[in-house]
Amino acid sequence: xxxxxxxxxxxxxxxxxxxxxxxxxxxxxxxxxxxxxxxxxxxxxxxxxxxxxxxxxxxxxxxxxxxxxxxxxxxxxxxxxxxxxxxxxxxxxxxxxxxxxxxxxxxxxxxxxxxxxxxxxxxxxxxxxxxxxxxxxxxxxxxxxxxxxxxxxxxxxxxxxxxxxxxxxxxxxxxxxxxxxxxxxxxxxxxxxxxxxxxxxxxxxx
Length: 206
What we know:
The protein has 206 residues and is mainly β. It has one domain (2-63, 86-194). It has 4 helices and 11 strands; from the N terminus they run ββαβββαβββββααβ. It has helices at 14-24, 57-62, 169-175, 189-192; strands spanning 2-3, 6-11, 27-30, 34-37, 42-50, 90-108, 118-127, 130-135, 140-154, 159-161, 204-205. Strands 1, 2, 3, 4, 5, 6, 7, 8, 9, 10 and 11 form an 11-stranded antiparallel sheet that branches. The protein starts with a strand and ends with a strand.
C-alpha cells in the first residue's frame, strides 16, 4: 500500500471507503482540479491531503482539542525557515483520487464551474449505489455508481507544514450522522475558506 512515504490504496467496498475517508479527512480540494469525465464514467480530483498516517496516536487524539499552530503562524503556511526543531512539524501531500463506474454526479452547495473555489473535505461515505463526499459548510458531491471502484495515489513527496487540523466537540456532534471514516469530525472553518452563504439546496445533476 505504500511506496516510501507515498500511499497507494484501492477501494472496492464500503469498508475500504471508510479507511480512505480517515486518510482524506481535512483535505483541501480546489475545484480547478475536479472533473467528471462523463464518457469514461470517471470522477477525478487532486487534493492537498494532511498526512494523518504520519502522526503518532497521541497527536491524532490531540487534534480533537488544542491547536498545534504556533502563535503568529498562519494556519495554512508551510515551513519556509530552517530553525523549526522546537516546533511541531506535520506534513501534507498532493493526492490523486479516481472514482470509476460513475453513472452521474449530483451536488449540494457546490458549483463545479466555480474553479476558484477550494473545498474542505470532511468525510467520504458509501452506501449501495452512491458514494458521497461531504465538505465543510454542508456542501456535498454525490456520485451515482454501479460499483465501488476507487483508487487513491499520492502524487508528490510530502512537504512539512506547521499546521495540524483541529476539531471541537461541537463539530463532532454536527458530523456524527455521517458514516464515513474513523476521524469523522468537522474542520475549523478558516482552514478551507469555503463557507457557503447560499445554504443547502436539493442535489443537482452536474
